[in-house]
Predict the structure.
Amino acid sequence: MAWFTVGRVVLVAVVAYIAAEIRPLPGGIAANLAVALILGGLVVALESRLVAASPGRLLGGLLGGLVGLGLARALDAGLFRAVAERGETRFLRSVLSIALPYIGLVVGVRKGDKLEPAHLVNLFRTAAPQKRHRVLDTSVIIDGRIADVCETGFLDGTLVVPQFVLKELQLVADSGDTMRRNRGRRGLEILQRIQKMAGVDVVISDLDFPDVREVDLKLIELTRTLQGKIVTNDFNLNKVAELRGVAVLNINELANSLKPVVLPGELMKVFILKEGKEYNQGVAYLDDGTMVVIDNARKLIGKTIDVVVTSVLQTTAGKMIFGRFVEPGAVAQVPSAVASSNVPAQAPATARPPAVV
């Protein structure tokens, strides 16, 4: 940075020295030095602006200025030679000689970004709509809910399964740990199920990044290359991808947004699955895995009962609903508007642990 400053100072000094020696303006050496310093400052200001400009804008400005200058010369050569040389003609020629290059320069600078290589490549591409890629990571494949989302048709675009994700799934499926082996095999079965779905386009990508070791970072680089989005339920991958400017579709966030809204005072039917931690509490689960804690329901384990919601608690592990047992004779006292919004009863076989966000 210091060398650039020295160069600018030397430039201004040289311009001032030339003005002092030649003295092109009347008024003595002081007036010439003042004009030289002003011109030197303008040159330095222009140089700093040009350095900060992008190469595309510089090229656009240069081409625009040349085109404007060429138009001015063409008009001068073809039109004004046929017109008598008068004061009005000379004035118009002078204005066009200045205005056309200026307009070309300004337009070229403003539209110079279109000369970037990425934009130039787009000019030769077909007008057909580009595919939207959705890159699947290992966790969302093993989770399995992605198959249900694809089956409903809510996930559009081409599903991309990287080769290194398949390799990771195979390593998990060949693990010596029984639980890890089952998770890996489940992931492979989920992929086969998605491939057999009608209307779902699945592509196995062979793109790899040997310089990148971690699978998560490879996923981010692949998604950036394809200009797509990562489909995951991994919290850490979600945050890292967002920091690197890659869009993410989080299955957990989708599941949380689809959970029914329950307000205090509403009536619902739940199946009491087990006893709670506190005295005389019963625990039930909704279809989405939300835990419902009911007071005075310990003796009703194994039964479907009516519950009035007393409060709703949002925790880091998900949502928890607290309620109290409603006696059979008291159900009729609940307003019909509340009763119409009940959550359907749940059978014991569908009870699941609370969803983890």
